[in-house]
Amino acid sequence: MAINKFDIYSFWKDKAITNIFEVKNYADCKEKEEAFPVIEFSDDICCWACGLPSWIISDEKISELDDLEKDWNNEKSLQKAHILAKSLGGPETVNNLFLLCPTCHAESPDTREITDFFAWVYYKRKNENYITIMYKELERACKMKNIDIQIVIDYFSSIDYDKQMNLRHRIIKNCSVHGSFVSISSKMMALLSVILKDISKEIGKH
Ligand SMILES: [Zn+2]
């Protein structure tokens, strides 16, 4: 029987990665090992490298979390990534599979050394949380389109939750989908276009 994502979660839920990129039980880690638990909260379904929440990937409403197994197995969210690549003989076993968002899955290393994979995860966890990445992408998109990022920051601080959700829908409508996944640069470019439209409407009113 094929391994599902809940099986993978069940194996990894008490594991951690140490600063020399070893996988251990989190409970056995010493402070000097500066270990990261692979999963921080069992019901917080997010990419195990960048922390991107699953509901952003799958564009679904956050469930009531009454069925953990169903939530982890949601087909549209995290992807099963091989730690040692299939092409290098990596097996289809829970200890060789890891759950990642589509962006991290594409970026993760495929080498013969499995410590390379864990070194990459450790670095991502420490330095490249999805919020940092999104901010950098937003900055980059602003430069491409000659927009002052401060205008975008001010805009975000001025809108409420309903407006944010409305913004999300308009961004999704403005992006064309490559496969099942919208690239972060498309999202950021679309986001800027939508914001600029809103801002120019506001200016028009005055
Ligand atoms: Zn990720």
TrEMBL record:
Gene3D superfamilies noted in UniProt: 1.10.30.50
Pfam families for this protein: HNH (PF01844)
Domain HNH as annotated: residue spans: 76-106
Presence of keyword Nuclease: yes
Record carries keyword Cytoplasm: no
GO molecular-function terms, A-Z: endonuclease activity
Full protein name: HNH endonuclease
Biological source species: Diplocloster modestus
